[in-house]
Amino acid sequence: MIDKVREIALKTLYKIEKEEAYSNIALDENIRNNREILNGNDIGFVSEIVYGVTTWKLSIDEIIKKYSQVKLKKISPWIINILRMGIYQIIFLDKVPKSAAVNESVNLAKRYGHKGSSNFVNAVLRKIEKTDFEEFNNIQDYKERISKITSMPIWIVEELLKEKDYDKVELICKNLNLKPNISIRINKLKTNKEDLKKELDKRNIKYEEGILENFLELSKVKNIENMDLFKDGYFTIQDESAGFAVEILNPQKGECILDACSAPGGKTTYIAELMENEGKIEAWDIYEHRINLINENAKRLGVDIIKAKINDATIDNNDYKEKFDKILLDVPCLGIGVIKRKPDIKWQRKPEDIEEISKIQFQILENCSRYLKRGGELVYSTCSILKEENEEIINKFLEKHMEFKICKYEITEKNEMYKFLEDNKYFKVYPTEKNDGFFICKLFFEPVP
Q1: Annotated catalytic residue 383
Q2: How far apart are CA 402 and CA 448, in angstroms?
Q3: Which residues belong to CATH 3.30.70.1170 in the chain?
Q4: 364-376 pLDDT, tens per residue?
């Protein structure tokens, strides 16, 4: 008999691989479609397998190569994912007996392959031991070793080695494999930190103080978006690195602010909250369904000063010249800094994407800088950690535009984020146990006399 929970995980992995679907979207869809047969533990197990296999795919495939006489490309997508699921359970999940991992994988192979497929899966999985993974530590080549022990494409390892030494790159890659924490931002338009803590206490939800004043870190909480406190807009889910970009922008009541790459609206709504819902915010995206997400988030949080509209920030529009007091450019990026939340990024991005995305980033900065009022401030940010998307974009822009300067930051050593300030020019947050990777730089528009 087929284990329905593992079958749902298999179908999700197949969709991620064959349709290049985002892991979080594919997983949410399959869970939603099978709510009637899944309990809380089942949902946790499906999520564990999907994110685990997606995270460790490179390392797992190396182990498959060790024991399979059939080349990976020759193995059907269904069977290769059944093998990956089985190996992940054997090596990474102590709570699952090896016999159960093997037997359930063989049952899946019978349905999604043929008799030869199930025999093949059985033969490979029975050879697997935890030591197969541990052997990667003995690889002599540093790049290859980091790649295989962290399941990181070697091109990403090489990019990071342009800036950091081997030990630091290995740590960054290991941090990108950690399970992400759940960080929430308190909506002070509706509540305050102490009152929200009391509500969390009533629900026996554990929390810790965040690095930033308006944030808390939750632990051991499931289905957070189904909580009444979330639905009623008392908080929103946001990593502190993302929230810090808004705090560096320092929005004030009554200002006119542009968030040019806004959807789904996490930073936009934080701007509104810091403005105490007084002023004007324009929020742009190029897709209507993403504009809807901005409006839904704003409505839930009780924000009514956001005007969300379809607009392409890469296209110059003279109607906006010197219109805004402040501008946030959280530009599209490769997302290397948030791999722990979206592990499929590792397999969907390619080295050649760097040049393409950096052109888009520069074009957005070039265009939107014209929309800033004299004396205005602009924050450029990404959730990536590659210098081609960050420092090099800023340096190229400043060489061309003498009227812009890097702002001095009003932040002291008392703020834990201070440690991420580099050369007093920008904040570069490499992935830590708690934080996503992020880059933030604030520019000031001061026309040359």
Answers
A1: yes
A2: 7
A3: 182-237
A4: 999 999 999 999 9
